[in-house]
Design brief:
55% of the residues lie in helices and 14% in strands. The chain is an alpha/beta fold. It has two domains: 161 residues, 3-Layer(aba) Sandwich (Rossmann fold); 121 residues, Orthogonal Bundle (N-(1-d-carboxylethyl)-l-norvaline Dehydrogenase, domain 2).
Amino acid sequence: MAKVAFLGLGVMGYPMAGHLAAAGHEVTVYNRTASRAAAWVAQHGGAAALTPAQAADGAEVVFACVGNDDDLRAICLGADGAFAGMRAGTDFVDHTTVSAKVTRELHGLAAQGGISFTDAPVSGGQAGAEGGRLSVMCGGDVLAFDRVAPVIGCYARICKRLGDSGAGQLTKMANQIAIAGLVQALSEALHFAEKAGLDGAAVVEVISQGAAGSWQMSNRYQSMLDDHFTHGFAVDWMRKDLGIVLDAADENGASLPVTALVDQFYKDVQSMGGGRWDTSSLFKRLRHFAG
């Protein structure tokens, strides 16, 4: 069992930190909204800290799951940042989906203090976090990964190192590319079936058993048909992620025409007031524009 800190208690971080406590680790949490940290302690035990540095003080592993590049820099750097509270030989694990650029920047700064930095974005959504079934894709030093992987296993179905610093984030970008295309394709299939006068649920019952089947189809088709989009990963966050993807593609020369198009479709959803709808709301966009 390890002494750990967890920074960021959003819809993902809150249950992930809970799994660490349930496994017997000694957990100190930090959240920008202190009442959220107090609620976590009331539910799971452990302790809450007022700053990332205080949370990280004495921790063997510090985990983070925040919003974006700027949020990650804010909790890592400065007098109150996690790095200031960590001692040499300890490990920082970032579960935030951010750019490979900020990951490599912070990896280098951490190394100056003898701290390892593993980028470890996750996939599986809120349900995966709550059920401890996340896919965790990691980048960074081999020895650091070997130390932190067993602890990450408290909430992971799979945890794999893909390469050096930034490789985890690049793999998460590939994940988001695949999801964007899948959700748009599923939305178009359901939209076509609806316009053709078919029973969408019956169509999915058949085609999900063949080559068209996917997690998105199995887990999202019914709520899409029911016009229910208040669960899952929000459009605002998906657009943040796809912005990171498209910036990286500009740098490495990858051609992502479908991803760029779906990003604009999500922009349409935002203009419809759906920024907090989940990503399957691409179907609602088709219904909206088709009339």
